Known about the structure:
The protein has eleven helices and ten strands.
Amino acid sequence: MPEGPEIWRAADKIKRAISGHTVKDVWFDYDHLNKRSNDIKGREVTDVLPRGKAIITKFSGDLNMYSHNQLYGKWMISKSHEEPDNNRTLRVRIKTENATAYLYSASEIELLKDDEVEKHSYICKLGPDVVHPATTFEQVLARYQDETFKNRKLTTLLLDPGFLSGIGNYLRSEILFLARVDPSYRPTDCSKDELQQLAKYSLDLPRRSYETGGLTTTDDLVKALKEEGATRSQYRHYVYGRASKPCYLCGNKIQVVKTGGRKVFYCEYEQIKD
Length: 274
């Protein structure tokens, strides 16, 4: 499933392509939405906003399209208006004079009025967005210190959009690693310094991933690994997807454990306390 940085980049791509342009045609793969297509034609696309792992496409005149990619949803853009060649199921097509935006494989699509957006059952429960530039270190630290969350296991908590919005599986492992926190810990098990490190990297890593197209490693490390002939999959992350590979900090083998059906990668030497 795409994480916050990927959703923000997708929203940026859609916005560059169709925002500020008038909708010439729109089509939905759902009869109840397609019946409203004429309500959208002629409106201007005024903005495209990421909200957690959802995207709000705003139209002029009090109308918005909510879409959630779920596991397999993907937006594609065509400047030529020719549909991209792929084997996905088309769910939405929005055509302007500038470009056509296609949404494939998504299963949650709704049309909402302006005052309904913040009340949406998914959006209203979102915690602070870790990619949003207005989200502060103090806000994120407060979440880690909150009584509501302090007794929940961090590996579960970091995947809860009601705690922090925009963190998923790869960011979870990377945050815990760079904060030097045991994956089995809860916030209540962490020292003051560990909580501060968790808050720091909960902001730093998603924002770096957003800015770099998916990297959580530093520029210096990326450069050094590239000079050694490493591929992108080898230099992209510190621990995620690197089970049994040497840790870039200490050289010990990266470990992996399943929790809630999903893998958490970690370095025993760097994170596990004796």
